[in-house]
Specification:
alpha/beta, nine-stranded mixed β-sheet, disordered C terminus
């Protein structure tokens, strides 16, 4: 635990899986190196890709504050994060996506939230960087979570939330002692179906284990997340919303529908109807994309609901499961 006047130590974990993102990975690491609140260390966790691991080893062999690890668990983002947690030494573990760059004060704003000892997790704001140079006019801000970014409907400023968003998040180390690590079998797995919700499930599990825990988001802790061209199309939007429904069904099965869907009810009954009205109003005013944004919101709701129904049936039949394991400290580990 930091003492008064001693900076909070933060380990930054970046999970990587493909050489196609080589330049993005280098940019992500460079943004961590440039932080006004220096990271204690940066850990790159490579998801079952020996060629990428070897290449990163050579790239950072002279950097004493950066270490490269192979994912010690099953393929996927959750096990990669757990590997990073086990290898880290900071009082707080922060996560940054491999295709994102953090603003200079990202860690400083995350660290500020931990001045209150009751705070167990702090997340930030993730802004999209569209490959085409601008947001597609049909793409509603209410669904920016589809591309891993902060969406319209989240509270502004520093606010208490049920869960943080995984690509721009941090947790006290003791969280993983109290609640275990990220669940495997629920989140991303390379280029397969774009599932999610692993951070939601962890946060709900945390507040069950520690009812006094406070979780925050601070919209001053900003990262910029690249959205590739393939994710600017409606086909990806549809597959991602369907996958979200599947994931939410798993979470609800684990923690109960009351907690598992608590935030989603407000989102579905307040935020999304307001978005539809706004889109139709824009259409009436002849603003580009208004009607299509309204239609995308309706389509997104229906597709997510369909995924939830399918996921619920699978979960009841035992065809969809996930595993939560304790995070054991790593021994040694390669510098590269």
């Amino acid at each position: 635990m930091s003492t008064v006047g001693t900076p909070l130590t933060i380990s930054v974990v970046i999970c990587v899986y493909t050489e196609d993102r080589w330049e993005d990975i280098l940019a992500a690491v460079a943004s961590v190196r440039a932080q006004s609140h220096p990271a204690l260390e940066t850990l790159l966790v490579v998801d079952h890709n020996e060629a990428l691991r070897d290449r990163l080893t050579k790239e950072y062999k002279d950097d004493p504050d950066l270490r490269v690890y192979a994912n010690a668990g099953p393929r996927g983002l959750s096990a990669g994060r757990n590997t990073g947690i086990a290898a880290s030494r900071g009082e707080v573990v922060a996560f940054l996506d491999d295709d994102a760059v953090a603003e200079r004060d990202w860690l400083r704003h995350l660290a500020a939230g931990y001045a209150d000892p009751a705070v167990m997790a702090v997340g930030g704001r993730t802004e999209p960087v569209w490959a085409s140079g601008r947001r597609p006019d049909w793409f509603p801000e209410e669904f920016d979570w589809v591309v891993g970014c902060t969406y319209r409907g989240l509270p502004p400023g520093r606010a208490r939330v049920r869960n943080v968003l995984g690509g721009n998040a941090s947790f006290r180390r003791e969280v993983f002692d109290a609640a275990g690590g990220f669940a495997t079998g629920i989140g991303r797995d390379g280029d397969k179906r774009p599932l999610g919700c692993e951070e939601t499930e962890l946060c709900i599990r945390l507040t069950r284990a520690r009812p006094d825990a406070v979780l925050l988001i601070d919209d001053r802790a900003v990262i910029h997340h690249r959205v590739p061209g393939a994710r600017e199309h409606f086909g990806y939007f549809r597959s991602r919303t369907y996958a979200e429904g599947l994931s939410k069904a798993l979470v609800a099965r684990s923690v109960g529908a009351d907690k598992g869907l608590e935030s989603e009810r407000r989102y579905a009954t307040r935020v999304l109807p307001a978005g539809v009205v706004r889109g139709l109003r824009d259409a009436a005013l002849a603003r580009p994309g208004g009607a299509r944004r309204a239609g995308a919101i309706v389509a997104g709701v229906l597709t997510a609901a369909g995924g939830y129904v399918v996921g619920s049936v699978r979960a009841r039949r035992g065809g969809a499961t996930f595993t939560v394991a304790p995070v054991e400290p790593a021994e040694g580990g390669a510098h590269g």
